[in-house]
Amino acid sequence: IIFIQLHLVLCNHLISSNFTQDQKSMKKKAVDALPGSSWSPVLINPNLPPERADIVIVGGGVIGWSIAYWLKQKERVRGGLRVIVVERDPTYSRASTVLSAGGIRQQFSLLENIHLSLASADFMRNINDHLFVLKEDPVDLQFNHSGYMFLANEQVAHIMEENYRTQRSAGAEVSLLSPTQVKEKFPWINTDGVALASYGLENEGWFDPWSLLNAFRRKAVSMGVVQCCGEVTGFKYKTNVVNSVDGEQMFIRRIQSVKVQMPNSLEYQPVECAIVVNAAGAFSGKLAEMLGIGSSPEDSIAGIPLPVEPRKRYIYVVHCPDGPGLDTPFLIDYSGVYFRREGLGGNYITGTSPEEDEEPDTSNLDVDHEFFVDKVWPSLAHRVPAFEKLKVTSAWAGFYDYNTFDQNGIIGVHPLINNMYFATGFSGHGLQQSPAVGRGVAELILDGNFRTLDLSGLSFRRILTQEPMLERNIV
Amino acid sequence: MLKILIPTVMLVVTTWNVRAKWLWPATLTHSLLISMLSLTWFAHTSETGWKSLNSYMATDLISTPLLVLSCWLLPIMILASQNHLSQEPANRQRTYISLLISLQIFLILAFSSTEIVLFFLMFEATLIPTLMIITRWGSQAERLNAGTYFLFYTLAGSLPLLVSILYIQTCAGTTSLLILHYAPALPMTSFADKLLWAGCLLAFLVKMPLYGIHLWLPKAHVEAPIAGSMVLAAVLLKLGGYGMMRIMVILEPLTKELCYPFIILALWGVIMTGSICLRQTDLKSLIAYSSVGHMGLVAAAILIQTPWSFTGALILMIAHGLTSSALFCLANTNYERTHSRTMLLARGLQAIFPLMASWWFLASLANLALPPLPNLMGELMIVTSLFNWSWFTLLLTGAGTLITAGYSLYMFLMTQRGPLPVHILGLEPSHSREHLLLTLHLLPLLLLIMKPELIWGWAI
């Protein structure tokens, strides 16, 4: 009897321990398989983009997310458009947006640029009217309205005066200051060599680019834009052969689907789409090459490449305890050196554009500290004597999506690719124009042409006809 | 009867045995020949009673139009699928065509069956090829969801139907339609008989669909490829209507009281789906919801069981089948070019596709029941007979007709008129195949203006 009892106890013990474990796992499996849970017998990678979308925006920088937000803003019915934004680096480690100095100014010479910046500044001042999401924190761009100040020497003072007239006529609040007035206003400036200064009174300054990007992204995602982490590695397109009036044979392409590859994997998903927006910033040229833009012989339209390439620019954070005060504007000297205040602890951000023939290597984002010592510090210390005593605390490098043709943005459809819209090539002023550019591209796609701001001057046509729209006085 | 059925079965053999180069022309010609042959069914010498009789299959005046419609639809489906299947390997193309042909066989057997059990079997059997077409060849991830909705809505409705049919067999001794007309009426007195009434009709109401249990239809239509949408809209919905017409005979006298909630649901559905159509951004979804609205009218007409309403229901079923299928073909021509079903992205097409715009115009006018098209005949008879049944329905049907006109015009104006966006300019021109496809849809519709006797069932 004892033997039987022992046997029973042992068996019970064995059965129950395995049995309860099995029971637990069976229960878990059953709970997983009930409707409402995400278990499925067929494992599908949840990070893949959907198989179909109406509009695919390549590039998740501030321009891409701005376009996504405005597209959703302008769809007339909720859920009317399926938009996905494809971004290959969710950490934004090499994206131009977050590595930017974050300035916004209206002191351009082209009317389109001035209008774009004005509209964007207005957007950013009332950003919570546009980008506020319920039950989330309101958007705080940390917009410092300290203005920009351009300094001009004798040779370029007349250009500055003409620009001033253009800017005033467009509605920008800019003022011209003589050297004595500059010295009165900002005693820390050395006005040696300065003939004229142009100071922005309103809607100019700097803000936090990361906040703007996140605000756009948060709002767009709340309106239903799908965010996909992946890299566009190819397109599937249909080609039509068209004979132009002068007998030239042109290949007009129409994109049928975008091949999105998952990071660190061979897995990819072809996303069938109606429209593709190229907002890839510094890497837009590579994207355009996938479609054969620029790979034909030189003398045809197809031979003209998208003139956007990455250019590396350095930004140095310096600490100077006796530096300019809190009302210091974003100062840009005629030598090209610029600086602005960063925070309240006596830190400043400074940098300059290198010469054409001394462009740094763009294969990485390493900072050249010699550049600061050789090119930036001398002019900086000359202009602001307090900066003779400073210490470089940090530095980083970022890419400009540099338009090698005329250093201004390209907005519009490519003549040879029916359904690819470009919004790239802003060469350093993309961030400040992003809200208005997004609105313009959304109007172009959904309404057929521009409604609020006429940006047809920034279309691809000027590149085809080789008529550059150059800014006078560029940073 | 067999002279149509056997060639259709042999069409499967044709599909698998012709050389790949001749696959589409051969199947097209073969199915067109079959549909020409099917037109002989229209030669009815007697106005009541059954023709082309054999033990299991017969045609009479309400099944003949539907049979001819389903035979007509096969060549049109093959024409429509040619483009989007051209990139698939040959064997997969053959499989697709075989699925369409098997659907055709089941439909012929369903509409010509003389036994309710055979009709039920074929009713269920049509689900299988349709499910395969939707879930395998649809274009989006949602097609799995759509297939599930489609399958389970219909199955859930048809289980009570199976039980009811078996009960009828034990009670009346037969389920043959030839005999049931003359059988003594079933004793319909207890509460269980009310459940019998509901059980008989629920499957067909789900299939029609009745507003309230219509959720499967927009999903299935939108996710299906073009041939799937066409056959769903044109014929499969009519299976529900036809089944209702057949089985109402034995369900007297309960229908007088029990039909109220369903008529109200159907008519309310006309208004609601019409309003939903006004807000749609997806073109196929708009056409799917318009199908629900039209079939709501048909459902209400069949439920009141008057001669005029049956006639109106039958005419509207045929006319709607042709119109809806034509609209889906037009939407597909858009989709194949722009790869998007959003109406906002394909506007102003009249400027680049003028002939296609005229087909759009005709199809939209047919959708809003313009005289003298048979759509109007059907709707008018239904509205009149409903008004006779109760004057109150005129408010609902009148408002429904108004909203139908509204969204049909909205669809036409959104797609054809308006500014032409820049990214639309490079679309490839219309194929003559597409023009042929739409002609084959709209020509019968126009010819039926001349001889509506073909489709109005038992004479008025």
From TrEMBL, chain A:
This is FAD-dependent oxidoreductase domain-containing protein 1. Its main location: mitochondrion. GO terms for cellular component: mitochondrial inner membrane. The keyword Glycoprotein does not apply. Keywords: Electron transport, FAD, Flavoprotein, Membrane, Mitochondrion, Mitochondrion inner membrane, Oxidoreductase, Respiratory chain, Signal, Transmembrane, Transmembrane helix, Transport. It comes from the Eukaryota. It is a single-pass membrane protein.
From TrEMBL, chain B:
It is found in: Mitochondrion membrane. One of its GO terms (biological process) is ATP synthesis coupled electron transport. The chain crosses the membrane at residues 21-42, 62-81, 93-111, 117-138, 150-183, 195-217, 229-248, 260-279, 286-304, 310-330, 351-370, 390-415. It comes from the Eukaryota. It is an enzyme of class 7 (translocase). GO terms for molecular function: NADH dehydrogenase (ubiquinone) activity; NADH dehydrogenase activity; ubiquinone binding. Keywords: Electron transport, Membrane, Mitochondrion, NAD, Respiratory chain, Translocase, Transmembrane, Transmembrane helix, Transport, Ubiquinone. GO terms for cellular component: mitochondrial membrane. Belongs to the complex I subunit 4 family. Core subunit of the mitochondrial membrane respiratory chain NADH dehydrogenase (Complex I) which catalyzes electron transfer from NADH through the respiratory chain, using ubiquinone as an electron acceptor. Essential for the catalytic activity and assembly of complex I. This is NADH-ubiquinone oxidoreductase chain 4. It comes from Sphaeramia orbicularis (orbiculate cardinalfish).
